[in-house]
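QA checklist item 7 of 12: single-chain prediction sanity check.
[x] sequence parsed
[x] length recorded as 207
[x] structure emitted
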Amino acid sequence: MLDVNKVKGFLMAPAETFRASKGDSLGGAFRYYTLLLVIWAILSAIVWMTLGVWAFQDALSRIAGTGIVGGLLANSLYDFLGFVVSFQFFTVYALFLLSLVGVFFVGFLWHVFALLFGAKRELRQTLKTTMYASTPFFLLGWIPIVAILGWIWYIVLMILGLSEMQEMSIGESAMAVLVPIILVLLGAVIWGTVISTLMTGILGIFT
């Protein structure tokens, strides 16, 4: 059963709730995380499949409106509606499995940087922080666009949570959370530059 009071606590009074959760077992935190993940997966599946069907049917309508050939093509493509629905469901299911296992990997990475910036407690506390901090994302992450707010809120809770659970200052926990994010974004930019220069080189050969 999901602890609604704990959910409210992480949303309305996160620092105090993290402080009160120091003694929670890792298993208890994981069960809390899993229940929220299941809720997110169910709601996301409904929304994604609905949007997928709507977008597919809208595309077919546009194709059918281009003429006789377009109408025949739209009728042929309609058979792919089942594929669209099943693919959306599979995507949500795959993300569910990745999140179920991946939270431990992500928590370990957060802990590495937490140690770098002064963490004083064991890995278990960082793993619990990672699970509990996911609360706003799972509650909002199934809503298009609004999911961005859930992700930002998750980052804020990670900072507050590490500060309480690892006995770090807000500045230290902020560095522990923001530095790896900056490194990932920097890596994405560098990778994008690599691909861009590669494509430029390939195109240069054939021009």
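[x] summary fact logged: The mean pLDDT is 90.
[ ] second reviewer sign-off
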